[in-house]
Amino acid sequence: GGEVQLALCGCAASPWETSFEHEPGVAAVAPIPADAVTVRPAPFERVDEALLEFERAWAQSDTYWEDWPEHERRAHTDRLIEALQLPGGSEEWVLLGASRFTAFEDPRPEGRDLRRFAANLGADHAIWTSAYLGKADRVVDRPVHYPSWHFRSSRHGHDHGFGSHTVWVPVTIEDDETLWMAFYLTDRKSVV
């Protein structure tokens, strides 16, 4: 599977994978080929509104959301699927889980990492969205070069001269931060 390939190549897990949360109560689905995965964006405003509606309902409820009646949970899932601009609803789609993280670099959702991770989950759709959060501080290592004079003595003679040394120094910089989310879904017919 994908985990063995990652371990053998020494590749680091993508942020899509490390931030993934499996949808409670949904059984695992067999992996599929990466070229069978549709990766596409959804407007952040639509997705955010659907998630806020869910959070408001949860905040007003006296019951933990996993204990809500099936029809209430399904209504919120249907609203999210609609926000992701997929036809149908929970009758046609199964939400396998989601990733959510902030990043200073673009994780390239159109690249291989998101598609490969979705395929390993068995998701035939990975719908992503992002929102600019603003400036934030982060620490990066920067090289500092400085000249040096060296003198060495050995039984073969003396050596001296100028050289240069480099040290890496942590520096706080201000950078653009973005919120990224991806939702992994599969066609209900694919789930046994």
Describe the 3D structure.
The chain is an alpha+beta fold. The chain has a 5-stranded mixed sheet. Helix 3 packs antiparallel against helix 4.
Offer a quick outline of the entry.
With 192 residues, this protein is of the alpha+beta class. Helices cover 28% and strands 41% of the residues. The longest helix has 17 residues.
| Computed structural class | alpha+beta
Task: Tell me the helix content.
Answer: 25-40%
- What value does the Rg take, in angstroms? 24 Å
Strands, total number: 5
Count of individual helical segments: 5
Reading the helices and strands in chain order gives HHEEHHEHEE
User: Outline, from the CA principal axes?
Assistant: elongated
Strand content: 35-45%
Distance between the termini: 20 Å
Instruction: Provide the low-confidence segments as ranges.
Output: 1-8
Largest sheet: 5 strands, mixed
